[in-house]
Amino acid sequence: MMSNDRFVVCGIAGSLRRDSWNRKLLEAAAKLAPADVDLRITERLGDIPLFNEDHIGNEAESVHALRAEVAAADAVIIATPEYNGGVPGVLKNALDWLSLPLGSSVLERKPVALMGATPGRLGTARSQFELRHTFVFSRSPVLPGPEILLSFAPNHFDEQGQLIDPIVLERVDLMFTHLKKFASLNEYEVV
Ligand SMILES: Cc1cc2nc3c(=O)[nH]c(=O)nc-3n(C[C@H](O)[C@H](O)[C@H](O)COP(=O)(O)O)c2cc1C
Question: How many domains does the chain contain in total?
Fold first, then answer.
C-alpha cells in the first residue's frame, strides 16, 4: 500500500453527465469504503483533450494531472455507462492518454475494478467486457469479480441519489475486499 497504509483508489466515472448514475454509484462506493480505503473520485475527465499522437511528449496539464492521480493510487475503480454497446468515448480517450508511455505507463500492473450502471437491462455488460480487452493492452490486471452490473439504475437509488439496494451495496463492499487482496497478489514481473 502506498500512503500511510491506506489503500488509495482512483475512481473514474465514465460519464460527464451532471446526474450520472455511474457517478452516483462511485460516490456510494466512496461512502461504503472500509476505513483503510481512500477512494478519490477524479474530476479530470472532462478536461482531457481528444487524443492526438502529435501531442505525445507535450501533453496537456490535465493529462499530467490525471496520470499523477492514477500513479498515486494502489488501484483504479471505473464506473461506466455503455454507449451504443461500447465504452464511452470520454473514458476511452482518457485511457488512451493514460496508456502512454507504452510499457511504463501509470496503468502498467495497476489493478482495476469495474462497475457500471444503466437505466437499461444489460447492466453495461458490453462496455465492461470491452474495457477488459483494453486493459490487456495496458497490462492492467482486472479484478475478475464480483461483477457489478447495475440494470434499471433509477430503481436502486432514492430521491437524494443515494444507492439504497442492499444487494448492490453488499457487492460493492465485497469488491473492496477482493480488490485489496487482488492488489496484494499483483507482484509479478511484466515481460
Ligand atoms: C448515445 C447513447 C447511446 C446509448 N447506448 C446505450 C447502450 O448501448 N446500452 C445501455 O445500457 N445504455 C445506453 N444508453 C443509455 C445510457 O445508459 C444512459 O444515458 C445512462 O444514464 C448514461 O450513464 P450516466 O447515467 O452515468 O450518465 C445510451 C445513451 C446514449 C446517449
Answer: 1
**Enclosing domain of residue 89:** 7-185
Q: Ligand 1 centroid vs 88 CA: distance in angstroms?
A: 9
Residue 110 near residue 140 (C-beta atoms within 8 A):
yes
Q: In this predicted model, what pLDDT tens digit does every residue of 4-17 receive, in sequence order? A: 689 999 999 999 99
Q: How far is the CA of 14 from the centre of ligand 1 (A)?
A: 11
**Domain containing residue 138: CATH number:** 3.40.50.360
Q: pLDDT digits over 118-174, tens only?
A: 999 999 999 999 999 999 999 999 999 999 999 999 999 999 999 999 999 999 999
Cell 496520470 found at: 67
